[in-house]
Amino acid sequence: MGDGIESAVHSFAAALQIAKDNELDLVEIVPNADPPVCRVVDYKKFLYEQKKKQKEMKAKATKIVVKEVRFGPNTDEHDFNFKLNHARKFLQEGSKVKAFVFFKGRSILFKEKGEILLLKFASELEEWGKVENMPELEGKRMIIYISPKKKK
To answer: Are strands 136-138 and 141-148 parallel, antiparallel or unpaired?
Structure first.
């Protein structure tokens, strides 16, 4: 039931009386249970511990950062290698990489070039990351996501 109070099934009135006798509060923990689970605790201390747990969980949660790399359908070898090195660094830092080919005007006719470019990009980064999905065309962009491999 609470600090120094044994767990037992009590009526609401009895539980409220136990809380008053100990100069504590009756706090409902699991309202959906049958009967509802309550605890006799100091409410301010209870709220403080809840906030502390939430803060701790938030600190432990991993934050996913997505870095973008943009190509044109006619990106040449030097630019490709330059962007490849940046993507490699991003993956080593633990960030996801979103690579996309942006088609302007009539260059959308060369969708195959964009797909080949992205697949080449993914195969070059195979050592550092894994492809989440194959290249997809969304409007004027062909996008591929690469997530970092887990460090051993």
So the answer is: antiparallel
The answer to whether 73 and 117 have CB atoms below 8 angstroms apart is yes
- Amino acid 59: pLDDT: 82
Token pair in block for residue 110 = 């060369």
Confirm if 107 and 123 have CB atoms less than 8 A apart: no
Query: What domains lie within the chain, and their CATH numbers?
Result: 12-60 (3.10.20.80), 66-148 (3.30.110.10)
What percent of the residues of the chain are helix, what percent strand, and what percent coil, each to the nearest 5? 45, 25, 30
For the record, the structure tokens of 124 come out as: 């070059």
* Per-residue model confidence as pLDDT tens digits over 100-135: 988 888 777 778 888 888 888 888 888 888 888 888
pLDDT at position 52 over 90: yes
Strand partners, 98: 68, 145
